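Per reviewer request, we include the raw input and output of the structure prediction for the construct analysed in the revised manuscript.
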Amino acid sequence: MKKSTFLLLKDRWSSVIDRRIDSLFDEERVNEFCVETDGLFFDYSKTNIDLETQLNLLKLEDESNLKAKKNAMFSGEKINLSENRAVLHTALRKSAGQVFVDGKDIMPAVLKTRARMLSFADDVRSGQICGQGGAYTDIVNIGIGGSDLGPAMAYAALQPYASGPRCHYVSNVDAAHISDILINLNAETTLIVVASKTFTTIETLTNAKTALDWMGRKVEKPARQFVALSSSRDKTSQFGIPENQVFSFEDWVGGRYSLWGPIGITVAIAIGQKYFQEFLNGAYLMDEHFKKAEGRANLPLMLSLVGIWHAQVGGHTTRAVLPYEQRLSLLPAYLQQLEMESNGKGVGVEGEDLTVSSGPIIWGEPGTNGQHAFYQSIHQGTHVVPCEFMVAQQNHEPELAHHHQLLQANCIAQSQALMVGRDINEARKITENDGFLGEELERQSQQRVFQGNRPSTTLIYPKLTPFYLGQIIALYEHRVFTEGVILGINSFDQWGVELGKKLAEDIVPVIAGQSPSSHCDPSTLNLISKLNKKQQLS
């Protein structure tokens, strides 16, 4: 990001910070501060962005050379510089064309793997591929990070389309996670999917071995009821998993961007080939929009620029994702990993310290539940939290349309309340009507004041279908990429994940009493001592 433009935006922020958002509205604003494409409608009129600010934000696209870097990503150049890798999750949703990496067209292999995966999914759904006890009734996906959050989120979101075996997702190495799921399943009709590119991820492999032991108590040759999503065929073979039940993916697909390929196999089994292809088609259409749409007509670009205005320019360090759709209950957690693992970095592409703040803290819950939890702080707390609302035009339960109307009303009302607030005069009227007088009237009135002037955006989509879910996920992927380019961040590595994992490997034998503790600091040693005393007491 060029310093001049950033400083210009900072100056602009300082000059408008006390301006009321609702004062900006005229006849044209609602049309000028929105983007609509392929059924998605994104409204950012309830922010303090005016035409001058919008123009300056758009300058960041050219100054960051976004278009060239976007073309580089889609064409297979190695834009993940720290790992010398291409970034081609977008290729996983293509159905034709060519994409070259190191001079080789990768699309034939992509399409071959997809065909194998979808054929396997159909055979599981039909019962042609089955367990020792007959057709599979349950599938347990064992992974962590993107190998868990992506498929678990999509499976929950697409329940109206799920007609295959029940899917369950295990990620935490805490024994309770896998134990609580397996205890209710029949080993003879359960398929285990192990997702680990290297087949060495310690949390995933620990859970996989526990599942293998569990199945082995009921099933002869239990590994035959396992599927591996991995590129390490020697290790999957050592585990006993048949070669035709191993689906690999390349190093140009990062874990948090991998839902579109073999990592999505449980989703494909659940919803079937037709709907899974619609899911891919939605993402592909967003790819094409991101590539071709110009300036403020480009939805991922504008979503990212609004985010930069609030986080890097305005200094708001957090962002709430608030889907008014119960089936998107896991979307905030999914986006939390996608954004924070991608752009939560203090070092730029060239190894330099960032001169601006990195990506914000992402969190949220579905509405209306969140309203009765943390919205109090969003409305009246001292921290300004930019909010991203999402809501569908239509639900999947036409006989319960009144539910959806109430849901929609709550979503729209919350964004309105954040903007307009409630002043002291209105608060006094309400308090008077409640019967308060004198000093108590004033005290009670102050409690009912809402500052307002708090920014939000709203994304409206027709209905939560596989197609529109694909669009939404791809939208946020491209938002992350765009913010990363503008901030000078490599959004596709995650070195910050490694250190704690490595130290954990060293500490395990210390806790078990199998290794000296000379490499541990005093605080860590004291914690280990307390844990071991607890073990002795039990």
